[in-house]
Amino acid sequence: MVGRDTELRRLAALAAGPDPQVALVAGEAGIGKSRLVQELTAGVPAETRVLVTQADPGALGRPFGLLLDAVDGLAVGRGGQPEWLAAVDRAALDVVADPAHSSVERLRAATDIVAALATAPAVVVFEDLHWADPESTAVFERIPDLPGRRLLVGTYRPDEVTRRSPVADLLTRLERRHTVTHLRLERFSLTDTSVLLEAVSGRPPSYRAAASLHNRTGGSPYFLEELLRAGGDGGVDLEQLCDQPLPWNLAEALRRQLDDVDPRQQRVVEAAAVLGHRIPFDVLAAVTQLPEADLIEVLRDLVRRGLMVETGDDEFGFRHALAREAVAEQLLGRERRRLHELALEALLAAGDADPALVARHAHGAGRYDDLVRAAREGSARYLAIGAAHQALALAEMGLEEAPEDLELRSRAARAAWLANLLPDAGQHARRWARDATAAQDRSAALRLLVRLAWENERREEMQVLIDEIRDIIGQLPPGAEQAEAVATVAQSYMLTERLEEAITWADRTIALADELGLPHVRLAGAVEKGSALLNVPGGVNEGRKLLLEVIEDAETAGEWLVAARGLHNLINNGPPFPPTEGHELLERMRADAERAGFEALAVAAYFEGRARFAVEDGDLRAAVEALEEGHRRERGYVRAGRRANFHGVFLAGLALEAGELDRVDAILPTLTEPGGKPSLAVLGLTFHLACRRGDVPAAEAALDDLYAGIDRIGPPYGEQVHDVVAAGLAAGLAGDRLRPLAERASWSTAVDGWEALVFAQLDEADGRSVEAIEGYEAATGSAELRAPVRASAHTGAARCLVHLGQTDRARDHVRAADALLARWAGWRVAEVDTLRGRVGLAATAAEGAGETVLTPREREVAALIAEGLTNAELARRLYISKKTAAVHVSNILAKLGLSSRTQVAGWLAKGRRG
Prior knowledge:
Strand 3 (122-127), helix 6 (134-142) and strand 4 form a beta-alpha-beta unit. 67% of the residues lie in helices and 4% in strands. It is mainly alpha-helical. The protein has a five-stranded parallel sheet. It contains 48 helices and eight strands. It is globular.
């Protein structure tokens, strides 16, 4: 491998390693990415399974195209059909290919297929990720999470990656979740060029020849190969090439290759250049108008010459995308239009053609009516199957020719929103609202703008839009749009906690839906009413009863998204459900969300729910594991606006609980979009972290930022206020400095356990122990507080009772806190530990230290110390600095009262025996 031996050795070493590995190979077109991959796969041991697939720039409307192409390539038997193809579950393959199934079901089936095909050891290669469809990038992202020894390689062109490319976010998410080896292939140096020329010509080139060819090609391996190919098959005379007026770019080199083709071959090459990357034989035959036998003969010769390749069963394409582009650029505009027109006629005649292909060729042929029709049909079709990126691209193609088309504009706005391209969605939605002349169209645009304002946390803009929708409702004729507008107002008030208004408008929605016979709108209105009631004083029972009824009706009617939303709100509002019932509801939510294809609830919210149940049960380790699993499984870990990395926020909170401050430091930068404003959760975490580190000036500044955030966003929730107040008081901040948080908080019910707890904390800080005990003891009996928080209420009551000299009562509270924190760690446990001696209880025994004194991260480090790892090896294994590893080791030894790393192994062994 000329100039690539270092990269090849690195990839080979990764493939031979014991753990899953990810490598990303970047470089411009023609730089040698594919050749590097070919050399890698050719050199792996015979028992290694190799799965290679390549993205297609024309596969706009083909979700999961990379996986399907990979399986098709195996099935047609190129190079001999492998026996392990039998491992493919045909039913799973049918699910992947069938748009009738939800995107979540299809993704799960696709991942299962890869797991079955690429059993360890394996090398899986996705080439040209910059062209990959979103569904294929989702499959790529999940492969590193599959168990076993496996190397995943992705190649891409950096200059082709835009913010709209699905691969753009993929690259960021992979870096945050896995150790990724990045290989950037650069152009050849003069020395590399000389080595390649020697390999091709069989003798060392002169400096003049090497320098001349290096300068003319710019060191591009592909340009070099094409220049040498243009020199003919009878041997390459490098000196002669230098004396001749050599082509300086790829187009001229390819022109030399085509000099001796006959007219039939020329016709096929030019048609293929216009038709795209993967060309069906029948379409090529229709465009070139060659008989089947003649076309087969021509294609066989072009494949033999290395200009074209057989890309699949009855499919052909250029050996390199640059070759296709160069040939197409040589054609006259009229020639290109004629070929596009022939392709368009062939597609239309065949019937049921991919609208994206129809649109592309209609655009090239200048038949703009056909283009707009295909864009309308295709954008609707892609939205229906959840292919938002494809729908957006096609709608925008149509809008280039018909910018006033509201149907296309609405599709572009909705597709951009679903694809999480919120700025683009906003631009399209605002243009949609501006151009709308009918009240129905304007109302529909405003409804989407309201949702975008909510997700971008622009409360003031959201209120203005709600008022406008309210004004326009009276102008709407009776029908679905009017009812949905009323439902949007109800939902907006519910989201912004204007609960009484939400209930009023939800009742209006239900009445209007009943009057107009719109059952799906009625269900939506009932979900908003039930969700609002959960947060109204005395409304929990009524809200739960209503939501359970709505969920049942929605599932019967097949309104899976409504059912999943209802279940999500039911689980996450009001007092916790008993464990068995709560888990059943959570699994039901997941099933309904999967049927709806709504991954935010099927994955992110599902694992969030599992983590919350673990917290309610006081099991910190289980909560962290649930979130980390959600992190691995969720397609969109980093999200914009209100969807910004909730797993990260939750995980940072749990890390603060455990005292893992370095981990919080690493998570915080990922929680705010570049240029965006931090959420209240992020502001609270920043303050909490400064307090736990004892950095009072930083804490004071962070508290000012938090108050400013409340002014901008709205009131904090009780749980958030408790955490912030506890941290602030622990850092020594005055109660008066923190009391405005409690006064501005959003308390959910008349008898609010969070409210009782927070004001008890402040009363204790102000020296009002009697009042504080009353609040703390009220909080200990609150059903809505989770086990660790109730433990803190017991601890606070114990502190105040000790202060008043009531040791016996205090001892009971310490015992209760101990029981609730049996599987917890961090500052809450430390607070209890400081009280034991003061109430006459023995300190925790050494055998419990591993579960109580050590944090989950420290237990993980302790296990690796027992394996004999050095600090440097710890750092590499845990992806932390050597300094951080040394701090962990020092803390472990101090907490356990040990003096050597060897004693840690003995302590662990004793704990396992006990």
